[in-house]
Amino acid sequence: MRVVSLVPSLTEAVALTVPGVLVGATDWCERPAGLDVTRVGGTKNPDVGRVLRLSPDLVIANEEENRAPDLTALREAGTELLVTEVRDVPQAFAELERVLRACGAGAGRTGRPRWLDEAEEAWSRLPVPERRTTAVVPVWRRPWMVLGRDTFAGDVLARLGVDHLYAGHPERYPRVPADELRAADADLVVLPDEPYRFTAEDGPEAFPGLPCALVSGRHLTWYGPSLAETPRVLGAALRAAHHGIQGIPPHSA
Questions:
Q1: Cα–Cα distance between 111 and 213 in angstroms, integer?
Q2: What is the DSSP annotation of 173-191?
Q3: Is the pTM of this model over 0.85?
Q4: Contact 160/230 with Cβ under 8 angstroms?
Q5: Among residues 52, 76, 112, 192, which one has the fewest Cβ atoms lying within 10 Å of its Cβ?
Q6: Cβ neighbours for 106, distance < 8 A, ≥ 6 positions apart
Q7: Side by side, which strands form the sheet with 58-62?
Q8: How many CB atoms lie within 10 A of CB 59?
Q9: What are phi and psi of 99, to 5 degrees?
Q10: Which burial class, exposed, middle or buried, applies to 19 when counting CB atoms under 10 A from its CB (0-12, 13-18, 19+)?
C-alpha cells in the first residue's frame, strides 16, 4: 500500500504503526525523526502534482489542517482521500483508529499499536482537576489570533482544568487585539510553540503581570503518539506557570 499524509500528527501515527506504507508527507512532518519519504510541500500548499506522481492508494488529510481546493483537486484526479475531523479527545481516538485501519493496521498485520492503548489509558485515568483556571490561548501573532469555539486544543486544555475564555466565540480562531486579551481577566496565558513559535522572548512581554505557560504545540494540538504523554507534559507546564515559574522549556517535565 502507498500512502501520502498531509497531516503531521497522522504522519507520525502511521509511520510508527505501519512502517513502510508512507511514500509522501509534508515538509512539516518532522516526526518520527529520520522519516525518509518524498516531501510534497506544506499542509496549506501541497504540490498536488507531486502527490499524484507518487501514485498513492490513499491520501490522508484533515478538514482543518488542509485546504478544500487542494482536496478537491486530488478527488477530481481520482485519488482516494480519507479526511479526518478532530474537535475533541474522544474524536481524536476514533479518527486515529479509522486512519490506522485504512493504512493496513489491524488483525493479520500489525495489530493495535501499544502507543494508542497507552494514550487512551492516560486520558481515561486523568483525575478531576482540583481547581479550574481561565486562560487566553494565542495561536498566532501579527495579527493576534486565539483559540475559539469547538477546537481539539480547547478540549485538551479543558480536560486538564484550563477553560479558555473564547470557547464561546462564534469563530474557531478569532482575531482579538492584544489589549482586549490583556483586559479579558484571565488567570493564565498559554503560548504554544506552533503554529506560531512563541518563546520566552516573543509573547510573554505582551502580557505584563500575567503568568505565561510556554508549551509544546505538539502536545497541545497533535493527535497521535504524543497523546500518551500530553497529560503529564502539558499538565506540568500549566501547573508550573500557574505557580509563577516562568520560562520553562516547552518540552520539559
A1: 37
A2: S-B--HHHHHTT--SEEEE
A3: yes
A4: no
A5: 76
A6: 100, 112
A7: 38-39, 22-25, 3-5, 58-62, 81-84
A8: 27
A9: -65, -45
A10: exposed
Mean pLDDT by 10 residues, the chain (253 residues): 97 95 96 95 96 98 96 96 97 96 71 90 90 95 96 97 96 96 94 95 95 95 95 91 52 32
Question: Is-contact 55 32, C-beta < 8 A?
Answer: no
Question: Minimal CA–CA distance to 214: which of 181, 179, 186, 250?
Answer: 250
For cell 486538564, the residue is 160
Taking the chain, what is the end-to-end CA distance rounded to the nearest angstrom? 38
Are the C-beta atoms of 160 and 133 separated by less than 8 Å?
A: no
Amino acid at 15: A
DSSP state of 226: G
